[in-house]
Amino acid sequence: MSALLSSFTEEVGQLPDHRLYGRVSGVLGMTVEVAGLDRQLSIGARCQVEARGGRRVTCEVVGFRGGKALLLPFGSLDGVGLGCKAELAASEPAIWPTEAWLGRVVNALGQPVDGKGPLPLGPVAYRIRRDPPPAHGRRRVGGKIDLGVRAINTFLSCCEGQRMGIFAGSGVGKSVLLSQLARYTTVDVNVIGLIGERGREVQEWLEDDLGKEGLARSVVVVATSDEPPLMRRQAAQLTLALAESFRDRGRDVLCLMDSVTRFAMAMREIGLSAGEPPAAKGYTPSVFAELPRLLERAGPGTEGQGSITGLFTVLVEGDDHNEPIADAVRGILDGHIVLERQIAERGRYPAINILRSVSRTLPGCNSDGENALVQRARRLLAIYDDMAELIRIGAYRQGSDASVDEALRYNAALEGFLKQGKHERADLEGGYADLAAILGVAWPPEAVAAAEPPAARAAR
C-alpha cells in the first residue's frame, strides 16, 4: 500500500500547473528545431509536436544549437512544418508492469502489439531510464544456472546474475540459440528485447522458435529495423526496466537482448543528428558512454531482491570480432560466447567456438573434478585445432605424437557432444556425465573417491 501511495504521489507531483509551448523553427532530415522552450528543456526531455491534421508526434531533446532545441521523433514527421506547436511533456516516461504482462508482446513505448487487448497497470511506476544498483550494495553472483544448452552449461558455466555476450556474424544461429535459452533456462521469468529486428521475422521467431511454452513465461519487447532510432534505443532501455521490475519482486530473471549492436547503431544515429563528431567507425562518443549504463543494469540485485542474468547478442560486422562495439561490450560483460561461421558451415549447431569463448565465473563456480574434466576436454580440442590443417591435407601421420593421436581419437565424439538440436534440451549435471563417459573418466568423482579403499585414497 505504501509503494502504491508513493508511486501515486510521485506521479501527481509531476503534473504541471500550466502548459508550456514552443514552435517548430526548422526540420532537417529527422531533426526538429524548436524555439521558445530552450530555457525550459534539457537533454532527455520530451515534447509533443502537433502536426498538420491534429496528429501529435512525441519527440525527445537530444541537443541544443543557436538557442534552439534539437529534437528527434519517436514516429513519422509527416505533417510537421514551420510554426507547428511543440508542447512540453509533463512527466518522465515510465511503465507500470505486473505479472499479467507475462506472455505479452509490447513495443518500445510499453504498448501491446500482440492483439490481446490492453495491458493491466501495476501499482508501482518504473522509469525507463534508471541507474544500476550501487556497486557496494549488490550481492555477489549466485550458483550455477542451467541454460539448457550442453556446450554452454559444461564449458562456459554461467551463474545467476552473470552477464554474457553472444558474438556472431549474421546468419550463424544467434536467434535459434536465443530461443533455446529462453525455452530451457531454469529461471522464473524471461524478458526478451528484439532490437532492430526484421519485421518479417518477428512473428516467425515468436511462433516457431520461442513457441507457446517459452512465451508463456516471457515478456517480449519489439522494435523493428524500420522504426526511428529513438524507438530502438528505448526498446533496449524498456527491456532492462521490465527485468528490473521482476527482479525487485524477488524473481530470478533471464534478460535476452538481440542485439546490442543495433542499440549502438541507434545511438550513433542519434549522436550524429545532434552534431556529435564521429569517432571509431562512425560511432560517436556517447555510444561508448551509454553501453555500460545499459549493460550494468543487469546483474545481481541488492539484499532481498532477485537477479538479472543477462545474455546479450553482438552482431559483429564482417565477422570482425575486434570491431569497436564488440571490443567495448567484451570489456563490460562477464564473459563471451563466440559463434563462428566456419563451424556453422560444417553443420554443427550451436556453432560455438569453445576455445575462443570465456566465462569469467570459471573455474570458481565448478568443483575440482568438474574443472579437471573440462580442462582435459579443452586441451584435446586445442591440440586438434592446432593440427587441423595438417590432418585435413593428410600431412600428419598417426603415431608421430601421442597427444595428437589422443586428440584425433576423441575429436568426433567431442564434436558430437557440442552439437545440439533446436528442440533438444540438455541438463546441467547430465552434461558432465556425458563428457566424462566420452573421455573414459569415472563419474561423479565424489562417488568414485568414496568407493575407494582407505589405503588407495591415502596413496592417491
From TrEMBL:
SUPFAM superfamilies assigned: P-loop containing nucleoside triphosphate hydrolases
A Gene Ontology BP annotation from the UniProt entry: bacterial-type flagellum organization
Family: Belongs to the ATPase alpha/beta chains family.
CDD domains: ATP-synt_flagellum-secretory_path_III_C (cd18114), ATP-synt_flagellum-secretory_path_III_N (cd18117), ATPase_flagellum-secretory_path_III (cd01136)
Keyword Heme included in the entry's annotation: no
Compartments, record wording: Cytoplasm
Chief site of localization: cytoplasm
GO cellular component: bacterial-type flagellum; cytoplasm; type III protein secretion system complex
Catalyzed chemical reaction(s): ATP + H2O + cellular proteinSide 1 = ADP + phosphate + cellular proteinSide 2
AAA+ ATPase domain residues: 160-344
Function recorded in the entry: Probable catalytic subunit of a protein translocase for flagellum-specific export, or a proton translocase involved in local circuits at the flagellum.
Name recorded for this polypeptide: Flagellum-specific ATP synthase
InterPro entries xrefs: AAA+_ATPase, ATPase_a/bsu_AS, ATPase_alpha/beta_chains, ATPase_F1/V1/A1_a/bsu_nucl-bd, ATPase_T3SS_FliI/YscN, FliI_clade3, P-loop_NTPase, T3SS_ATPase_C
Keyword Chaperone assigned: no
Swiss-Prot/TrEMBL keywords: ATP synthesis, ATP-binding, Bacterial flagellum biogenesis, Bacterial flagellum protein export, Cytoplasm, Hydrogen ion transport, Ion transport, Nucleotide-binding, Protein transport, Translocase, Transport
Species this chain originates from: Tistlia consotensis USBA 355
Class in the EC hierarchy, top level: translocase
GO molecular function: ATP binding; ATP hydrolysis activity; protein-exporting ATPase activity; proton-transporting ATP synthase activity, rotational mechanism
Origin superkingdom: Bacteria
Entry's EC annotation: 7.1.2.2
